[in-house]
């Protein structure tokens, strides 16, 4: 199957309200161009340098999403062009994103990453940390960021019941905070689901799926 065929197959079964992020990390520009020529305009990368190199080489009507863990000292490199940062998991990082966004006179859209998996290794805030962050005076003082949603990754397991429980948990948190509407907080996007679990994620309420290997092949 070609990249275009893989994409079309996935898109056929995607509800209208779900955005497909084509996760192109480690893949060459030629592969991304094949997806682009098949109509794909949203790409996800997890390393800033790689994303910047691809941004320079690719057409400029692409939305670039940073889906990986972000270090504060790297924020300045992507602020000029990044459309959405998925993995924001601290006030410190938000502060730096805001600082760089002010410098560029931009507003940067962010998703807060929530820790829903059992694994210790995955990044993300727990519910208490999320609550503290959103209620802090410092967060309210940020003028150039907008938290537009939440992101999470389920445990890497074949146990569908467990994955569903984790997705349901994230959806419940999303629904709790969805009602809030302040200048820099309005949850509209729920980013959950990857190649192995995106259909389940959509059934649980995902509005944005991040799919790599099912489009571009294994890495
Ligand atoms: C790599 C990655 C994906 C895509 O994973 P696939 O299993 O290849 O679809 C999605 N989200 C994040 C955060 C990733 O790092």
UniProtKB/TrEMBL annotation:
PANTHER family: PROLINE SYNTHETASE CO-TRANSCRIBED BACTERIAL HOMOLOG PROTEIN, PYRIDOXAL PHOSPHATE HOMEOSTASIS PROTEIN
Residues found modified as N6-(pyridoxal phosphate)lysine: 25
Residue stretches making up the Alanine racemase N-terminal domain: 3-218
Organism: Flavobacterium sedimenticola
Keywords: Pyridoxal phosphate
Domain of life according to the entry: Bacteria
Protein's name according to its UniProt entry: Pyridoxal phosphate homeostasis protein
UniProt family annotation: Belongs to the pyridoxal phosphate-binding protein YggS/PROSC family.
Free-text function comment from the UniProt entry: Pyridoxal 5'-phosphate (PLP)-binding protein, which is involved in PLP homeostasis.
């Amino acid at each position: 199957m070609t990249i275009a065929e893989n994409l079309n197959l996935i898109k056929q079964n995607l509800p209208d309200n779900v955005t497909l992020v084509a996760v192109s990390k480690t893949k060459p520009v030629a592969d991304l161009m094949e997806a682009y020529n098949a109509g794909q305009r949203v790409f996800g990368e997890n390393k800033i340098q790689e994303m910047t190199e691809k941004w320079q080489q690719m057409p400029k009507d692409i939305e670039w999403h940073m889906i990986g863990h972000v270090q504060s000292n790297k924020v300045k490199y992507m602020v000029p062009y990044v459309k959405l940062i998925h993995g924001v998991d601290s006030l410190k990082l938000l502060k730096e994103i805001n600082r760089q966004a002010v410098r560029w006179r931009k507003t940067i859209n962010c998703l807060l990453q929530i820790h829903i998996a059992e694994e210790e290794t995955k990044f993300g805030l727990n519910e208490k940390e999320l609550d503290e962050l959103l209620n802090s005076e410092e967060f309210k003082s940020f003028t150039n960021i907008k938290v537009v949603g939440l992101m999470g990754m389920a445990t890497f397991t074949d146990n569908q019941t467990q994955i569903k429980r984790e997705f349901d948990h994230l959806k419940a948190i999303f629904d709790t905070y969805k009602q809030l509407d302040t200048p820099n907080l309005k949850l509209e996007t729920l980013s959950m689901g990857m190649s192995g679990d995106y259909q389940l994620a959509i059934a649980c309420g995902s509005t944005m799926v991040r799919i790599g290997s099912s489009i571009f092949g294994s890495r």
